[in-house]
Design brief:
The complex is a heterodimer of chains A (290) and B (246).
Chain A (H helix, E strand, L loop, with lengths): L1 H31 L6 H18 L4 H24 L7 H23 L15 E3 L2 E3 L1 H23 L1 H11 L1 H6 L4 H26 L9 H12 L4 H22 L7 H12 L14
Helix pairs in contact in A: 1-5, 1-8, 1-9, 1-10, 2-3, 2-4, 2-8, 3-8, 5-6, 5-8, 9-10, 9-11, 10-11
Chain B lengths: L1 E10 L6 E8 L4 E6 L5 H9 L7 E10 L2 E2 L5 H6 L2 E4 L11 H11 L10 H8 L1 H4 L11 H13 L5 E5 L7 H18 L2 E6 L2 H7 L2 E6 L2 E7 H6 L1 H8 L6
The chains are: A mainly alpha (290), B alpha/beta (246).
Chain lengths: 290, 246
């Protein structure tokens, strides 16, 4: 029983990180109806920015982290302004394909700038495992999850409470109406991409701390995309809920059935749920063709 | 004064929907735009409000001027800053936001441009008391009439000098229809807002308008003072039916 609890906590911690990654997909999708296939690689870019600050420039974590988040947010605004805005008026599929291209470019760019080797990220968190009674939670996973959940919380509050968040929600709800009422819709898209990239950078730092850093790290983005679809592509709460479910399932099946089941069982469950609820756990029913 | 001169508009690669349409909305007046389904009423409104690009449409000829300055090709959010606002077809509320948040979003969008609109959100609740009781409900759960009131109230918060309304009576019960139209007349009377009213329901529209245009196949076929239009046999047959019968 203790074991199950410990495994569950580790799984939920990983799930919290999935939630943070998923958040980035959802806010972009809600605002622009674009599924951003470059999200995983934007996350990786953020992780490498942190690595550069902390390991190459030897900055303390409290300087390297904001630097990485800012740099990645700037990448997000550049992507919206230079890649997607010129495609406005074209079909959504074109924009989605552009994000595929962006993913490939980022993958190559990171190899050019930082090499394709695995590197260790300087530890951002205290390295003693977290001890709760008889349970041990690995430090990077535990603190990483706390950071991820804090980031999700802060973002949700900003989204709910601030006027900018209100304008972003209005834009996501109806672009024509928002525009008619004086909201600068392209500027809102820009802010949305910046926010999504900023959360991706944080997630990248957390994932990079748990594993190591290499240019293939972005692949986790694709697994999380599946998780987000489980939650409902347009539901923030759904992304977090689904992240926690899949993280927990991975940990529990990995422990009781063996590591090779860890990748299979959660996605079988996901498929099954999607057959019953095609729009995800909390998503709004809506047809999307890609 | 809103002045539309000889505009032509198309969607995608299709045939022109507007073919040299001209009209004027003098300052402080209510002008009705009448016509059958497919005559181009909604397209006219979209063209003026800068909303054609959202429907893959565009202007191919003509000019639109607001108080003497060209506004064709200007993005909708900039038009709102120039005090021209549209309540587009289908109301287009932020359905998953509350009534209050719908109004706050509109009030925020233009903040910093000038002082707050007189009375702000409370003035909208005074104009449409039904909304006040629903302020914390999601807009998507309102009745049709309440939705129309919210759409108009939201537009009012941008403090417009010209308001374009597309079919405000559509799908409303008679009592609510009357309340909405009373509200529109008050907005015009109390705040001096010029209004271009696109309506299928000619009886209602001619009740509050001063001047009217009738369009067919993308151009104006008849225009005149409301009294003259009401007396015109063609208009009576086609748009007023027996409702105005002697």
């Amino acid at each position: 029983m203790e074991f199950l609890l410990e495994i569950s906590l580790v799984g939920l911690a990983v799930g919290g990180v999935y939630g943070l990654i998923g958040l980035g997909y959802v806010i972009v999708y809600r605002a622009t109806r674009i599924v951003n296939f470059a999200h995983g690689n934007i996350m990786m870019f953020g992780a490498y920015c942190y690595f550069t600050g902390a390991a190459v420039l030897d900055l303390p974590w409290w300087a390297a982290l904001p630097l990485a988040v800012t740099a990645t947010a700037l990448l997000g605004t550049a992507v919206e302004r230079l890649l997607l805005r010129p495609l406005e008026g074209r079909s959504q599929t074109v924009a989605v394909m552009a994000t595929f291209g962006l993913a490939a470019v980022l993958h190559g760019l990171v190899q050019l700038l930082w090499s394709a080797r695995d590197v260790f990220m300087p530890p951002i968190f205290a390295q003693q495992p977290i001890v709760l009674g008889a349970m041990y939670i690995p430090a990077n996973t535990g603190y990483g999850a706390l950071l991820a959940l804090a980031a999700v919380g802060v973002f949700l509050v900003l989204f709910r409470v601030t006027n900018l968040g209100l304008a972003m929600r209005a834009t996501a709800s109806d672009q024509v109406a928002a525009s008619s009422l004086g909201i600068n819709v392209p500027a809102m898209f820009n802010v949305t991409w910046a926010c999504a990239a900023a959360t991706a950078a944080l997630a990248g730092v957390v994932v990079g701390s748990i594993t190591t850093l290499n240019p293939n790290m972005g692949r986790i983005g694709l697994s999380v995309l599946a998780v987000v679809i489980l939650g409902g592509l347009d539901s923030l709460a759904g992304a977090i809920l689904a992240g926690l479910i899949v993280g927990w399932l991975e940990a529990v099946t990995g422990f009781y059935l063996g590591a090779s089941y860890k990748d299979v069982v959660p996605f079988l469950v996901l498929l099954t749920i999607l057959m019953v609820r095609p729009h995800g756990l909390l998503g709004a029913p809506r047809v999307e063709r890609l | 004064m809103l002045e539309v001169k000889a505009i032509e508009a198309v969607y995608g690669q299709g045939a022109p929907v507007l073919r040299g349409l001209s009209l004027r909305v003098p300052t402080g007046r209510i002008v009705a735009l009448l016509g059958a389904n497919g005559a181009g009423k909604t397209t006219t409104l979209r063209a003026i409000a800068g909303l054609l690009p959202f429907e893959r449409g565009r202007l191919t000829a003509g000019t639109i001027a607001l108080d003497g300055r060209r506004v064709d090709g200007v993005a909708p959010h900039r038009l709102a800053r120039r005090r021209l606002v549209a309540v587009p077809e289908g109301r287009r509320l932020f359905t998953d936001l509350t009534v209050d948040d719908n109004l706050r979003a509109a009030a925020w969008a233009l903040k910093g441009r000038r002082a707050r609109p007189p009375g702000g959100i409370d003035a909208v609740y005074q104009l449409f008391p039904l909304l006040a009781a629903r302020r914390n409900h999601r807009a998507g759960y309102l009745s049709g009439g309440e939705q129309q009131m919210l759409a108009i109230g939201r537009a009012l918060l941008t403090e417009p000098s010209v308001m374009l309304l597309d079919e405000p009576s559509l799908g409303l019960a008679p009592r609510l229809r009357e309340e909405v139209f009373t509200g529109i007349a008050r907005i015009n009377r109390d705040r001096g807002v010029s209004i271009l009213l696109v309506e299928q329901n000619a009886v209602l529209a001619l009740d509050i308008a001063r001047y009217g245009y009738v369009i067919e196949q993308g151009r104006v076929v008849l225009e005149g003072r409301v009294a003259d239009l009401k007396a015109n046999p063609d208009v009576r047959d086609a748009y007023l039916g027996s409702a105005t019968g002697r």
